[in-house]
Amino acid sequence: MPLKKKGFEVFIARDGSEVESIVENTVPDIILLDIMMPNIDGYQTLKLIKNNKSLEATKIAFLTAKNKASDIEKGLKLGADKYLIKPFSVKKNSFRNTGTIRVMVF
Asked: Contact 87/58 with Cβ under 8 angstroms?
């Protein structure tokens, strides 16, 4: 994963239901969240994250193929800090590690 190569500490969850076990021991600085996931979708996962007091300072970015204006509006209204549309290139977008940053990817 390109983020690991740039020195970020990365945690990966296959779906929204895995978030609770990961955040028991780690509070990520940034969560990259897809909307289309099995079991619990990204919108529901975002609601779970926003209800967790230990994740208040965590930044949330949707990284998804859902590109309709209504999807973007819904994601931002639910509390996402950023909405990025796939395909997405790490090379074209600036991800610099300026210290210990924990990234959780769904």
From this structure: no
